[in-house]
Amino acid sequence: MKLFFASDHAGLNLRRVLMDHAVSLGHEIVDLGPDGTASVDYPDFGNKLADALATDPSAQGVAVCGTGIGISIALNRHSHIRAALVQDVTTATLTRLHNDANVIAFGDRVIGVETAKDALTAFLTTAFEGGRHQRRVEKLTPAN
Ligand code: RB5
User: Fold this and answer.
1) What is the pLDDT of residues 1-48, one digit of tens each?
2) Which residue's CA is the nearest one to ligand 1's atom 5?
3) C-alpha R_g of the chain
4) Which atom of ligand 1 is nearest to the CA of 109?
5) DSSP class of residue 79?
6) Which amino acid residue places its CA nearest to atom 10 of ligand 1?
7) Which residue in the list 27, 78, 98, 133 is annotated as catalytic?
8) Which atom of ligand 1 is nearest to the CA of 67?
9) Per the confidence metrics, is the pTM higher than 0.90?
10) DSSP annotation of 113
11) Which tens digits make up the pLDDT trace of 62-79?
12) How far apart are CA 70 and CA 59, in angstroms?
């Protein structure tokens, strides 16, 4: 799986941990930044991740900010994105099964590192269930 990673300054540390984890699981990663701890705006990096996924719909994204909320909002303004802010393995698994999420989002200031790594593993190893969930996911896409 090809994975695009993006964060803001508040998500830098967890993004780096999760990139290492993804590589250890055998995934191809593309790091969209930022490179350092200077303050940046989470919408810029959420939009950058959305643009990257538009060019490669078979890939998935990993997004991190302080709470995970701001970057999720930025991502979900794009019609091709289903970004799920997860707290644990259960939410990471269910958002793949039920929502066919293509981005997993984390709050660096609110989740433990080991929980985040386990949640990412679950997200990457769980397939969309389809069935009744297919109709619901289709209704998430705006008509215009
Ligand atoms: C940055 O201080 C912080 O506001 C941001 O990382 C995020 O938590 C916003 O939702």
Assistant:
1) 999 999 999 999 999 999 999 999 999 999 999 999 999 999 999 999
2) 66
3) 14
4) 8
5) T
6) 70
7) 98
8) 8
9) yes
10) H
11) 999 999 999 999 999 999
12) 22
